[in-house]
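hi!! sorry for the late reply, been swamped w classes. u asked for the two structures so here they r. pasted raw, havent cleaned anything up. first the sequence of the first protein and right below it the tokens
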Amino acid sequence: MSKSLFFLIVLIVFSIIFSQLFFYQLDGYQAATLIERLTSANSLFVESLLATALIVLLVNGRLPHRLAAYIIFSLLITVYCLQYASLYLTGDYVSPTALDNIQHIGLILSPAKMAIIGTLCLSLLATILVAEFTFNKTTWKKAVFLFAACLISAALIKTGDYQLSTDTLSARAELNQSDDKFAGATSPIRALFNSFERTRQSGLKSRPMAKAELKQVGKFGIFYDESKAYPLIKDYIYQTEVPFPPKRSQANPGTPLNIIVFFSEGLSARIIQPYNNQYPGLTPNIADFSSSAMKVDNYYNHTFATYRGLLGQLCSIFPMYAGGRTIPKTDYYCLGDLFNEEGYETHFLFSQQKKNTDLDELIAKTNIDHILAQNDLRHLYLADEPEKRPLALSDQQFFKATIEHLRSLENLQKSGDETPFFMGLYNIGTHAYYHMSDDGVSYKNKEQDSYILNAIHNYDNAFGKFWRYFQQSDLFENTIVIFTADHAHYQGKDFTSLVKEQSDYQPYFVDEIPLLIYHPAMELPTGFDAKFTSSLDLAPTVAQLMQFENRSNSFLGQSVFERVTNEGLAYGDGYLYLTGPGGIREQNEYYDDPSNDTNINQMYKLINNIQALERDGRIWNRGLKE
């Protein structure tokens, strides 16, 4: 057998196998007709045949040509395996957010997954070595014949679309999650290219906004003045008094309050008590905390994933980058600045190792003074005890260290140091695809065994230890506690299977997230409707709750207590989401056609402009404070 024929057979068998593997991961495959099934992977076959055409030609040449053939072969197999793994785990191809966070892939790799990757690499190497040293070269005449046969076959498969009915094309496109219902199935390589392209183009477009559009922007509470060098800077954070009366029983009225904010990793409101009781007893401690707090409803994440979520909330902005990258020349005005100006000590604790994340660099951009990671917390508060989770503290360890850090601050205040503090906290144990660590507490539910529920229940158990400590400490009388999330839970198949019975669930990376507020000095109601506002509004909401004086800032959001519209915005991966009473609508590009000039289109233009400002270093002028 010749090298060319060997690769032709290998790739045809591979394509047939993977076409069926992909097919069975697609939504609605059970109802597919025979024609829809047979044509569902036509784009995959076209891509594979085009790659095969190059391989059968190059593999007969000199060493550089053969190396090129082996590289094309390896890349094709690797991309298909990567896309299949993504489709199997998440129900979608690799997204721009996944590409932006590719450096952290080790966080979700288990020994079994590493074994599969190792087996794949060895199989690729073995196939190449067998081809190189076992089979003979093909004559150029036969190689050209096979090359032409591959091209003709690819053309016939592609043009076969024109023989299919409109109904079949539409059904197949829906089956394959294609953006264009007449464009055929979205192929693995094309999908990956589209993700790279959306990542590259994100935030690079800037367009002037008409007066009518700027007026519409104002309805969302966003200040934007194109005539200024720094269009986002304004001289107010909120415009009304906080709508809640002070508590008469407050121990020391007028004394600055401390504040703690829990940025829970990937936590949707719909999965936990007190927001939903689909899984009774899943989060009893969070529910107990909520009995002393104000429960905010209709509050959504405004971006994703963690890096955007944390920077976006601390600085009230739609950040450009998702992978921890920041733009050195760009300054932000954030909660760190606000609290530092008010004489607070600012702290941020997170559970990952510094060397395996960019969180410390990202949080430093928010001007928080004390940033403690896994390495610091283990040494200071855990007597350097072994990790219970690779490269990070388990949630149980993280809360144990958090309590000890709070004790140290409490003792300082008892000793006469009257400096109040702001503290942000970010755990990792509830991350998508994370299984509970060895020291975790599992959710006992005979009807539902889920690693997601176990991780959330364990987080709640660890939070309960904080809550019991906090209630017995002096901090209970002088510290605000806000419980929220960095973003919603990722819409992977394992999660959607848990919540698919909830009629209002839409499988987006945007969803209602918890916002629970304990305030020792205000008479907060038990519930508050945020009117589909978002985590973009956290920073101004905190400023209003603290009753800080207004000052220059670049916050895009407005306090949830000043909300006038009944719609909210979210943005990520090149998609804009408009949340409201009718659900979530999405748009993935800006339409120049005036007939499409809707609210969501205008907001898409605005966010593109804001990210262009970020790229150009025109968010905040730090010289205003120098």
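now the second protein. again sequence first, tokens right under
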Amino acid sequence: MTLGLLASGVATAGPPTGGALPPQLTMVVAVAGVGEIPIDAVGAAVNVTVTNPARAGYVTVHPCRDPAPVASNLNYLADQTVPNLVISGLDVDGDLCITTNATTDLIVDVAGYVPAGSPIVPLAQPVRFLDTREGLGAARARIGRGQVVSVPVAGTPGVPADAGTVIFNTTVVTPSSSGFVSVFPCGQPLPATSSVNFTANTIVPNLTIAAVGAGGSVCLYTTSETDLVADVAAYVPAGAAGLTMLPAPQRILDTRIGLGGPAAPVAGDVRSVQVGGASGVPAGASAALVNLTATEGAAPGFAAAFPCGVGVPLVSNLNFGRNQNVANAAVVKLAPDGTMCLTANQAVHAVVDVAGYVTGTAALVPVTPRRLLDTREGVEPACALGARLLRPAESPTPAIELYDLATGASRGRPSGMPAFGFIQSVLPTTDCRVEVSGILGNAGVWVSLDANGALLEQRTQPQLSSWTMRSQFGGLALVTRAVFDAAVVDTRTSATRFVLQEFNAGGGQAGGPGGYLPLGVTSDESLFAFGVILAGSERGVFYVDGDGRLLGVLPIGLGRWPIAMSPDGSMLLLFDSLRSPRSYVVTTLDGEEIASVGEDRFNAELSPMAFMTSGAIVGCSPDGTRAMRWDIHTPPKPLAPTRLPCGVVGV
């Protein structure tokens, strides 16, 4: 089920899926180079939705090279579906990271990007400038009903004194009753619009983009007694072109009273709203900065905003319950005639307040909304963890170290086990263990580690044998037991699923040259791929089902080495040593070429290589100095060694 414009609608409450991001861990989301977003983008406007969280918690979004900040981007309770717009900087690899402190599914939709040279300055980490619980930025006291609090922001840490606009997250904490918060430049009249809508005893965030008012301050008004927290994520210097905030937000649509359109709920139809050329927004604006509010919903559902004329994209901006008031900020690309379109899968009244607009492409470039991540649908790795072998120069004795793929920071070293001679493979599992296989002397060794590097389990195979981990989904190990003998072992139960004996080109299981190179297993464990040596030193790939029965053989020719099969069972990765230049080649399972890239593009022979998802490959150079992630549908993206420390890459 996709959170978007499908009949099933809002995500139902229940346990997270197998792809859910575990607690206290980070997921890397590639942004630059995807779809309309150029490879040199420095920031992105993304809508992040949490669904099916196992317990109350929060999410932070940040550039991957920076540690997760203390500030949060959205908060949630168990079984809630909560979205929030985030404007975040990207790291030098064009990625952003999402860290959560509770197990949950995540959906990420991109709405725009910050181009290189933009006057918008995303902060490396959000900076908290208001917390009434702690007396930061205001008195240590709850804001009373009908009260306005003025908070200095220009000249605070991270924000220069000449900032003209600030982009910050406003969070309402445990209000005494239902109501709303309005954010506006100090010195301006209180607007007749809302920035955050809430119910009693909840924690509700929303992104706010506001002009800096009198005294370098922004003002917040609340209709209910509450605590307020605000974290600034970016700023724009005064006078910068391309991003303009209105003196006060203007309401351009209210379907309850017929403002801007018919006085009728949005209910499965597409509603056009004129933005450009109205309410202070010029006709040539490329995007609008709006606050979307859903109210009086007939049933749980979701709504989406997008440029008219492009068709309905499979994304969402906000999720709502029956008779619930829910608001979320949005950056919406406008159609050439200045319109934006709204739709919802359940009857609901919609309110749209425009706070500012974008002109040109220098500051913020809007895009047609596109889904970047849905952990319920894809095969993204559950844990952004890897393992590397530390040599004596780095450690008194060779040792395995668990590390964070996003930052390279150490997560711990297991004790109570002998050191590997070398590591063959590393796989995070969906329950956030890390399984490592390698060689110790002449024996194959397999270990299971927890997320902090503690040793959970260790197994050793007899002499001249090895373990090769290839399934993060079912805990399966493909084990070479002898030169021409292999088995598939369930590491959860120690049971042997099936045994592969000597294989030859004629399709039999006896006689002729053989040997096994495990390539992968599909996420449903129905298809296994192995590389073999066929007659005349030619190599091939053969496929077996979940019981070890031979399904087919694909000869791949001389000079080609099979490397990996994608977890969705759609693609093979091969290395072609006879091409000029030598190349990595992606094919279908029956050998039809999909893509290729010459290795001279990276100035390295990248090994080991493996699929990270159905559409991305990661690898390290043999000398451990270079790393690379190749997104098949986007330009290849070399990575700095501090981004993915080499030696072994966790995939």
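hope this helps!! also noticed smth abt the second:
Residues 381-461 form one domain.
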